[in-house]
Design a protein that fits this description.
It is a single chain. The protein is an all-alpha fold. It has one domain (9-97, 106-132). It has helices at 6-25, 29-33, 35-41, 47-81, 85-96, 109-132. α1 (6-25) runs antiparallel to α6, α4 (47-81) packs antiparallel against α5 and α5 (85-96) runs antiparallel to α6.
């Protein structure tokens, strides 16, 4: 097995934490399967507050994360850990999967807390992956 330095663990550790965050804490994975459970957990707004169309939009967003972003992130982390070139490519694709059409958020504070460290980690990760290749 190849020697795994600090850079490897600085990419892998936060990557797996981000995946768990998306599934359980930010809870995009759970509402994709059961939107009402997401409402009960407090991670999604009830349809009575944001209308049925708003609920359908957020469910679609969560489902999109579940079937594209989360598997791509997991595959990238696994591929990177295995030393495969496709792992680096998948991780780079995850970083580029942003800039969806805008919408207004009722509470932006959680995003301002979570996203800057994720963006810094992603930028550093791209730099690190480019150096590995």
């Amino acid at each position: 097995m190849a020697q795994r330095g600090t850079g490897f663990w600085l990419l892998q550790g936060p990557g797996w934490l981000l995946l768990l965050y998306l599934i359980y804490i930010y809870a995009q994975g759970i509402p994709a399967l059961d939107y009402d459970l997401g409402v009960a957990m407090g991670t999604q707004e009830p349809a009575a507050r944001i209308t049925e169309v708003g609920a359908a939009f957020w469910w679609g967003f969560a489902f999109g994360d579940l079937v594209t972003y989360m598997p791509l992130l997991a595959a990238g982390l696994i591929g990177h850990a295995a030393g495969r070139a496709w792992g680096r490519t998948a991780l780079a694709a995850v970083v580029a999967a942003r800039d969806a059409a805008g919408w207004s958020l009722a509470g932006e504070r959680a995003y301002w807390i979570a996203l800057p460290p994720i963006a810094l980690w992603a930028a550093w990760g791209l730099w690190r992956l480019a150096r590995e290749g």
